[in-house]
Amino acid sequence: MTQTQKKKSTDTTQKKSPETATAPNVEQTNGSESSVSPKTQAKSANPPPTARFTSSAPNDHRLVGGGRTDSGRLMVHKTYKMWVGGKFIRSEQGRVLGLHNAEGDLVTHYVRASRKDLRDAVSAARSAQTPWATRSAFNRGQILFRAAEMIDARRESLIARLQEHANLSAAEAAQEVDAAADRMFWYAGWTDKYIQVLSSVNPVASSFFNFTLPEPTGVVAIFAPTNAPLLGLVSLIAPVILSGNTCVVLVENNAPTLAIELSEILATSDFPGGVVNILTGLRDELLPHAAGHMDINAIASCGGNEAQDRAIQIAACESVKRVHFFEQPQTLDAWCSERQQSLYSILPFVEWKTAWHPIGV
Amino acid sequence: MQTYRLPKIPTVDQVQVESRAAAFTTRSIKKGAKKAALELAIRMMDLTTLEGMDTEGKVQMMCNKAMQPMIGRPCPSVAAVCVYPTLVGVAKRALVGSDVKVAAVATAFPSGQSFLPIRLEEIRQTVAEGADEIDMVISRGAFLAGEYARIYDEVAASKQACGPAHLKVILETGELGTYDQVRKASQIAMDAGADFIKTSTGKVSEAATLPVTLVMFEAVRDFFFQTGKRIGIKPAGGIRKAKQAWQYLVMVKETLGDDWLTPDLFRLGASSLLNDVLMQLQRLETGNYQSSLYFSED
Fold it and tell me: Which range, of A5-9, A169-173, B200-204, averages the lowest pLDDT?
């Protein structure tokens, strides 16, 4: 709460320049330019003045709330990085994107992942997968419970961040944070129960004891929802990892910084490095590389447009990936609804193993 | 018999060597050049298995892979397989009709801590089994004690014992301590008649690095200027990624020149590098990042 008030007061003291006020959409134009690699840009005759920054309104160096606090302290601005293999890293390309508020002012920068960042994240997820899956279900549950606990512990700062970065009201922000903690808590309980509920003992017409049980698929790429920057992420990550999958999450939404806040929570919840890897960037840029990646076993996607979903399906054919599209709720209330948490969200990311055990021999 | 005296050799500037070696990692190798580099790296590879648990079956499988690293696309075979002496016969039989050579580690590998007559006899027997190349280790203990003449004599005697086989001398740079020591050891091995100098056994945690290999390159280059003889180099141990492989190739080209860009004068000793190189080649061909699950382990 205090942070919100602070932010409001600094907002009024800082004079908004006319350039910033008229250029909330600069991000779009610069975004397309920077699809060329930085090296190519450097060689071209007239490199754009801010080649490394994909979102550069003329006054972008003046951050909202920049300068000093009310009490005269220098503001300590947070650097939002990505979370890969248990480490907080910048992109190997050094590119960033800008996060703007409703007035078009720059709030902060966040990382724009490259395809090499994606590749690194996948290899981190791959090497973390077997150790994660071989942990006891109870232990995985403990870790997910711990994550729910940590969301709760950072409730106030998450609420403040949702207000500043996602333009939510205080009440909406609180609703989203509480629902996120509850959802993580709910899925945590399933780690040592979903196998019992989903498995079956099958009647067969010979002297075998025949049973079927689910096992994790492997490495799952998650294209995060484009809304509900905290709750949406939790709702997709939890059902994927609870069974022993590891994941690489690509976040492109109205406040990707919340994904990094969440990764700080997960990092302090005893998750081994590489179980969850969070990249921020552009879905269109990384989608073909993720969908075609031979070392990704499944894709969970939410909030993509028709062309993107189609591109995933086509590129995923080569390695016969499991692909699952989650329908994206359009309102916060819908996201918070209990219908968004389901045992059946675990199902798309498991493989079924049937064992024939001889009896009466 | 005259006692060997180490000639005057220049000292190594640690800071310069490390920064120059670091510069080789910044070259941008793309598309066609990358493909050529990867294929060259395969042709220069000594595919290695040096485990206590090696069996005949494992060596046979490795030899099959050495001859035909990849099924379904044209791919060069590797330069050699590198095995323990007792498995040379198996490898030799498995490789009949191919150009792949058999290298064997002899002389009480990896420590070298045994009696000289036994080590020489090991070389003779290994060559008799059919080894084309012998990878020997120097006595690091003696070297660090300053007994350079003894090292020289041992290498010279090993060279004699090799007969027609090529001799690679493993310096085990991770145990030598400083770049100056590496440079000295390289000089002694070359003076004593080594055909190749090799960085490491792969059994010590600090294995081949770019700077240490650069020091050896410079020793080889200076030796060539003085004597006109071309000595080969084999970095080994810790080279697991295709990216590392082409960094070494860049360093060869920019330090020793094109003459050394041949399997006769440059080798990469590795066990898991081959799969990563194959994955990169496949990635270049298909455009998709690859998974190790689709590549055979042995």
Answer: A5-9
Instruction: Name residue B106's amino acid.
Output: A
Which one has a higher pLDDT value, A104 or A312?
Answer: A312
* Domain B18-286 falls under CATH 3.40.50.300: no
Separation of alpha carbons A321 and B177, rounded Å = 50
Give A-chain residues touching B290 at CB under 8 angstroms: 294-295
| pLDDT value at residue A47 | 38
CB A251 within 8 A of CB A278: yes
ipTM: 0.82
pLDDT reported for residue A65: 62
pLDDT at A64 over 70: no
Q: At what angle do helices B273-286 and B31-43 cross, to 10 degrees?
A: 150
User: Strand locations in A101-207, DSSP E?
Assistant: 106-111, 200-202
Compare CB distances from A318 to B28, B288, B292 and report the shortest one's residue: B288
Q: Would you give the distance in Å from CA B229 to the centre of its chain?
A: 18
Name A355's bridge partners: A211
CB proximity A73 to B under 8 Å: no
For residue A44 the two structure tokens come to: 């071209």
d(CA B168, CA B111): 15
pLDDT value at residue B298? 67
CATH 1.10.10.200 corresponds to the domain A115-358: no
Higher pLDDT, residue A73 or A1? A73
Please state, in angstroms and rounded to a whole number, the distance separating the CA atoms of residues A323 and A96: 29
**pLDDT at residue B1, as a whole number:** 60
> What residues does CATH 3.40.605.10 cover in chain A?
115-358
Smallest CA–CA distance, residue A184 to chain B, in Å, is 31
As averages over each run of 10 residues, the pLDDT of chain B (298 residues) reads 86 96 93 94 96 95 94 91 96 96 94 95 96 96 95 96 96 94 97 96 91 97 96 95 96 96 96 94 92 85
Strand pairing of A246-251 and A219-223?
A: parallel
Comparing A346 with B73, the larger pLDDT belongs to A346
Q: What DSSP string describes A147-175? A: HHHHHHHTHHHHHHHHHHHH---HHHHHH
Which amino acid would we find at residue A209?
F
Q: Give residue B4's identity as a one-letter amino acid code.
A: Y
Residue A61's pLDDT is 52
Chain B residues within 8 Å of chain A (Cβ atoms): 28, 286-294
User: Is residue B227 packed enough to be buried (19+ CB in 10 Å), middle (13-18) or exposed (0-12)?
Assistant: exposed
Vertex B97 angle, CA B93 and B103, to 5°: 55
The answer to whether the CB atoms of B291 and A289 lie below 8 A apart is no
CB contact under 8 A, A119 and B289: yes
Sequence-ordered list of residues with C-beta below 8 angstroms from that of A10, at least 6 positions apart, any chain: A64, A65, A67, A69, A70
